[in-house]
Fold this protein.
Amino acid sequence: LLVLLAPRPASSRLGFGATPLTGSNFDSFVARNEKVLVDFYSPKDPRWPDLHSELQSAVREVRGFGCQVPVATVDANAEEALANRFVPNGPYPHLMWFRHGEPTQYHRTLRKSKNIMDFMLALDRDPLREAASEEEVTKGVNRAVYAQLPKASPMYKVLEVVASKHMDTVEFTHHE
């Protein structure tokens, strides 16, 4: 009885919590969440149980770091039209990051939980940096996009999507 009541580490209590997506709920799910990681997979792949386990482990780890980005899965065999829309030529698994409903980053070769975790944590950050002025931006970097717009504007969301696609090559800054 004591073994059953013994406390367990938090990571063993946290579930995977992935939302299965289909053609009927995909667009609304990625649109209503600011950021989403989607795993397009094929259960026919003999490696799938191991790959799925690695993804589960990675998600539990990033939750421990405070990353609350929703994770979803798409069975590419059952949802062929949906899979072809985003991953037309395979291979699977294929991880895709969405921001404001738009795909911004993807990875086809991440197979280990550590690599998946690094991918998620690197993308779960603000792609825009607040800048006081255009001069501040031009002094600090050699390539940057500077925008003056309110955070509540629709254009700010568009800028976030574009910045998410290029966050490792160009600095995106804004001032309200």
